[in-house]
């Protein structure tokens, strides 16, 4: 059981580091392209938001892959595709139960689910921040000039 916890926490730490880097990259991209938000073109705003979403989604998919490599490396699955599917189900906390790990390593599944809850939450909060900032700027641009200074 202790080896499960050690392995699980180690992979969670790797995923946390990776997601932190991708979070900084995503939000830096948003800030450096802030002119797109201020553009009168809706397409520019949508492209910026979709770019941030895509970067964060890629981060989650890579983390799923890291867990899948662990499961595959532990010989829990005969092919990587099955390990990746199993990892997706755990990371998303779906818990289908159609594929189960051996008793020796089964504690890693719930640990990955905890990792998924945290990482999806981090991605969601970053997306919400970018959306709120975009809507705030759009709202300010739509206010009459005399009311902008009064808020």
Structure report:
This protein has helices at 2-32, 34-38, 42-73, 80-91, 108-142, 145-148. It is mainly α and 151 residues long. The chain has one domain (2-139): Helix Hairpins (Orthogonal Bundle). The protein is elongated, with a radius of gyration of 20 Å. The mean pLDDT is 90. It holds the Pfam family Ion_trans_2. Residues 64-127 form the Potassium channel domain. InterPro entries: K_chnl_dom. The chain crosses the membrane at residues 6-25, 46-70, 82-101, 113-131.
List the keywords.
151 residues; mainly alpha; 6 helices; Helix Hairpins
Total count of helical runs of at least 4 residues? 6
Largest sheet: none
**What structural class is derived from the secondary structure elements?**
mainly alpha
Number of structural units classed as domains: 1
Radius of gyration: 20 Å
Element-by-element helix/strand order? HHHHHH
Distance between the termini: 57 Å
Strand content: under 5%
Offer a quick outline of the entry:
This is Potassium channel domain-containing protein. The chain is mainly α.
Topology readout:
Elements lengths: L1 H31 L1 H5 L3 H32 L6 H12 L16 H35 L2 H4 L3
Helix pairs in contact: 1-3, 1-5, 3-4, 3-5, 4-5
Keywords: Membrane, Transmembrane, Transmembrane helix
Pfam family, one: Ion_trans_2
Organism: Photobacterium halotolerans
């Amino acid at each position: 059981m202790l080896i499960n916890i050690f392995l699980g926490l180690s992979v969670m730490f790797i995923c946390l580091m990776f997601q932190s880097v991708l979070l900084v990259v995503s939000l830096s991209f948003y800030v450096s392209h802030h002119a797109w938000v201020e553009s009168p073109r809706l397409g520019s705003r949508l492209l910026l938001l979709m770019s941030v979403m895509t970067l964060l989604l890629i981060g989650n998919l890579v983390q799923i892959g890291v867990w899948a490599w662990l499961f595959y490396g532990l010989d829990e699955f005969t092919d990587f595709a099955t390990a990746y599917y199993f990892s997706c189900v755990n990371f998303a906390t779906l818990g289908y139960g159609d594929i189960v790990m051996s008793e020796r390593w089964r504690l890693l599944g719930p640990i990955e689910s905890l990792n998924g809850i945290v990482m999806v939450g981090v991605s969601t909060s970053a997306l919400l921040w970018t959306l709120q900032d975009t809507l705030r700027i759009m709202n300010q641009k739509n206010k009459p000039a005399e009311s902008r200074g009064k808020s």
